[in-house]
Each structure stands twice: as structure tokens, then as C-alpha cells.
Amino acid sequence: MIGPRIRAGHRAALVIALAIGSIAASPSVQAWSASPRPMTDADVAQWRDIQDAQLTPNGAWLAYMLAPDDYSPQREAVVVVRSTSSEVERRFPAGDPKLGAGKLALSRDGRWLAFVRVPEETNSGEAEEKAVGGKGARKNASSSSGNEAEKNATSSKSAASVAKTSVVLVDVERGAATPIANVRSFQFGRSGEWLALQGYGADRASGFPLLLKRLDSSAQMPLGDVCEFSLDHAGERLAWVTCSVDGMTNALQLMHLPTGKTKVLDSRAGASYRKLSWSKDGRSLAAFRELKKEAATEIVQRDLLAFIDTGRGTMQKTEFSPEGWSGFPSRHEFDPDGALTWREEGRGLFFQVRALPQARDESPAKVPDQLRLWHWRARLTPWQNAFAGIAQPNPRTLSYVSFDDRRYVQLGTEYFIAEPHARGRHVLGYDIGGEEGSVHEAIYGRSIRDYFLVDLASGQRTPVASKVESIPSFGFDPVLSPDGRSVLYFHEGHYFIYDVASSRTRNVTQGLAPFYDDRRERNLPFGMDYFVTKVNGWSRDGRYVIVNDHWDVWALPRRIDADEPVMLTDDGRAAEIQYNYLQLEDDENPQRSFDGYMHRYQSSTSIEIDLDR
């Protein structure tokens, strides 16, 4: 992802200040009372949290939700759209966030905002069962699929008995709001031209209605009996699954939105399709196909389907089945809940496998009434795992297939966790230390890991760093650069860069002020308990990784024998200002870069950095 260029010596307007805690619901800042009074329950009930803040690509508008505390009697959330260059601010009621209200998304071009509105009078018991889409995050707005429709659909009640949500579509510049009733989920196309709206159906077994709305005109395309859908990243293709009550017309279909032409990619009586996943360039699509025996409830066959655009107007289909696939582990299957992740070039796919249900011990853990002690080297029983909170071995393992040779490559195991990566020859993984490592993490709340690079062609592992401490939710976990050329990790108070090509390591914070929050009372050694440095981006030229030390923003060198750390802000630590990088540029349209609205960067050193991601 290309970010805006950071120019030292350039002072730009500050868009978003760091907000800690909650803010009052009042639109204006109230003057301090000359005579302080005790805080009341009514005061606390007015507190609001800023959630899901999103900035338009040109930096001109900021959208966010003001949400009440979970226990506040005042349940109304408000979606706010405000200008970053004037006093213009618009507010829209959304309803109770606990019931799905307010989940918002900006279109890719920043012209439109959509959010979920919950009816004022909603039965809470029914609302918890209904499906409300939108998926909240910017990422989901552009690339997530509509499979929440199937996962969250009400199975015990008809759709008519469930309180129906609506979606409010807002013209960001003009402020005009258009409510669209009876919408259970939505998704923007990547280009911002289309909005997909999934409604409520009378019968879950026959899917739900889907409406494709063109935002720059009144054009609409309705589709019926849709179980799942997904727009590609360019917003030009729609993949969707039709499902009928008897299953005879179930199919995976494709539509080219500019022309309206459709084609059936796969169709089989009784089949169901799930986990629709597009490659970044929109030329490749993956999905699972599941088959059941007649009148059976259990899946008897699950295959992996991949469709790749040949460039001649056709999609070439490739099927993968566990049976007979060389290297595929015995008594295992494709994990239907695991993500399907494409390589950037669309010629390789990551997926998860898991043990067959009959091979797994599904018996409930039994915890005795009396206290039992165990030795840390002892083999743990199921009840001890449940009682002590010790993690079980990883139930799913990462695997990979290249469409050039169709060879299955296992990248992970039950005690080795690997993560997908879009570019480069490797993925990054870590060994959790077997059962002993699980015990250590359960007792101390942190784990000691050894990290490796895993070759995608052979599965061979190359050591990167050993005995790296990891703290869930607080610690900094090693990360592989977007281009696959560097690994950044934190160890004993310093950050290190591992160069993949040379297998050499460099301490890139040697001699600098601590790169962790050293002013918090409860900080443990090396700042591993709170707010460890976040990665802000990687330079496209391979020279820098952009991070912050909780106060200032730095460009840390990636090359082993060249460059020195560069501070991009001067007064963060001294003035106790916390700076952070904010993504503004559109990776599909670099000309949309906006230089004026980003966090303030200033430095006496001249440096220009073109960020990769």
C-alpha cells in the first residue's frame, strides 16, 4: 500500500489528536465551573467513546461514532462527520451499538459514508440473533465478503419476527442522508461506484435478496436467493452464491458490473459454497464447495475451488481435493473456517487444514471438585488444560499451493504457527515450544518463541531470532516486511532488523532513547507491558521502516551496513506529544495523494520517504 510521502522540514496540519478515555456528548466544550461539584450518575451516562474513526482519502473529512458506555442507560450512538478545515459538523442518530448500530464504512473515493441504524424499539433478545452487516472497519468496507449473512442469520425465527435494521447512506460533501430500510449487511465496491445491500428473506434456506446500487446514478440490479457475496478489489466483479430450498439450483456465479454480463462458475445439485475470496488484482477467486449426502446433515466432501482469469474472457477452474493430493496430511480436511488468502500476483493461495472431526477428542473437559497439583513437565490431561487455562495445540495449520505446479506445501504444525504473506519467497512463523511453551504462557501470561522463515517452495525453515518474548495484546510480535526482504523484531529493549538475503542482523535502536513507554508506573523491563512501538510503514526503496517510540516518529534503517536512524519529529518526547502516521493515499490511485493533512512532521534532516505499506 503506497502511503503519502513524508518530508522532513514540512509542517502540515494536525488532523487527529490522541484521545485517551472518553469524551462528553456535548457538541461544544463546556466551560469549567468555578465551583466544582461531585460527579453524578447522570454525568457518567453522558460520556461517549470515539470509535471507528476514518478519514477520507483527501483528508478533508473525518467520520467516527460517538458510542455510550456498555453499561450506560443512554443507549443512543451518534455517527459524526466533520470537516478537518472548517467548523462544519454533521450528526446522525444510529441507535444502540450493542445491537449493531453505527457500524460504518467510507467508500474508497471518500464520497460516501454508510452506517447501520437500529430501530428505536428493538427487542434485545431478538436483536442479538439478527445479522447486521457493514463489518465496521475500513478494510472490510472494500474487500470483505458477505458471508456474515449466512453465519449470523436467524435460524430459529423467521426474518419477519426479527427487528430489521436499515443502512443510512450519506453524501459526505453535501451531508444529505438517505435511509435504506430492511438491510442486514452492506459492502462498498473498491472503486466507490457500487454499493451492495443484502436484505432480509422470508426463508433462510432460500437465501436473501441482494441489491446492487450504482452510487453515481439511479441504476440498480436486484438479485435473489443470495447466501454469500463478495465484490472484487476493483469493484468491477461480483461473485455470489445462490441457494434454493431444495438445493437443486445452488451455484457460484460471477457478474461483470460495467456490462451486467453474468456466468456460472460452478453448479452442482445439493452443493453449498463459502469463503469467497478475491485476489488483490481481481483476476482470481477462491471458494470452498461442500457436498452432503441426500437427507444428511454432515459434510461428506469439501473441495477447494480456484478460478483464474485467462485474459481471454474466461475463468479457468482448478479443483483440489484432500483425497489423492500428494503431501496432504492423512485424516485431515480443509478448514471451512480458515481464511483463503491469495498471493499478490494471484498465482498462489494460502489455506488452513484441520484434523477430521472423528480424529479430534470432542469430549467435554471434566474438572474435579478438589484441587489438584501438577508438575510443569508433566503431561496435561484435558481437565487440567481447561482448569489451568492452558492453550491446546493449534487446531489448524497453514498450508500453501502454487498454481504453477499444484504442489501441496505444509507450512505449519500444531506447535508451529505460520502467517500468510503476499510477497517474497517466505512466510514468517514461530515455534511455541510445544506443551512446555503452552504451560509457560498459561502461568506467566507471556511466551518465549523462536522465529523462522519458511520457504514457500519447500517448507524448509531458516532461523531468524530465538527466545523472543511475546505478550498477548501488549507486546510487539516480529513482522515480515511487505516485500519479504526484512524482519523487524523487539528483543531485550531494542529493535532489530534481520536481512533475509544475507541472514545478518542489525540493532537499529542502539544508542537511542527507549523505544517503549518508560513513564508508566506498571511498565516491566523493556516496556513490554504497555504500548510497545507500532510499525507505521515500510519504504518502497528498501531503506527504512517507519515506527514511533510512543512520542516521536522515526525512520529506522533496513540495510545492514548503510543509513542511520532519522527522527522525523522533534518535540514529541520533550513536549509529551504522541505522534503517529496516518494513511492518506489511495494505493490504487497514487494521484489522489494529499500532502496537507497528516500528523505534523518536522526535522532538521532532509529526507523523503515513499512508503510501501
Structure commentary:
This protein is mostly beta strands and 613 residues long. 7% of the residues lie in helices and 37% in strands. It has seven helices and 39 strands.
Keywords:
613 residues; mainly beta; five-stranded antiparallel β-sheet; 7% helix; 37% strand
Q: Note the gap between the termini.
A: 4 Å
Structural class determined from secondary elements = mainly beta
Number of strands: 39
User: What spatial order of strands do you see in the largest sheet?
Assistant: 11-12-13-14-15-16-17
Largest sheet: 7 strands, antiparallel
Alpha carbon gyration radius: 26 Å
Helix content class: under 10%
Q: Which word captures the global form?
A: globular
**Rounded average pLDDT:** 76
Number of helices: 7
The percent range for strand residues is 35-45%
Low-confidence stretches: 1-32, 123-161, 387-391, 526-531, 584-608
Multimer state: single chain
Write the layout of secondary structure elements.
Blueprint: E1 6-7, E2 23-24, H1 41-45, E3 47-55, E4 61-68, E5 77-83, E6 89-95, E7 104-106, E8 112-117, H2 124-127, H3 138-143, H4 148-152, E9 166-171, E10 177-180, E11 183-188, E12 194-199, E13 208-214, E14 220-231, E15 237-242, E16 251-256, E17 261-267, E18 272-278, E19 284-292, E20 299-309, E21 315-320, E22 332-334, E23 341-342, E24 348-355, H5 382-388, E25 396-402, E26 408-410, E27 416-418, E28 426-431, H6 434-444, E29 447-455, E30 461-470, E31 479-480, E32 486-491, E33 494-499, E34 504-507, E35 535-538, E36 544-548, E37 553-557, E38 566-567, H7 572-575, E39 608-609
Antiparallel strand pairs: 1-39, 2-3, 3-4, 4-5, 5-6, 7-8, 8-9, 9-10, 11-12, 12-13, 13-14, 14-15, 15-16, 16-17, 18-19, 19-20, 20-21, 22-24, 23-24, 24-25, 25-26, 27-28, 28-29, 29-30, 31-32, 32-33, 33-34, 35-36, 36-37, 37-38
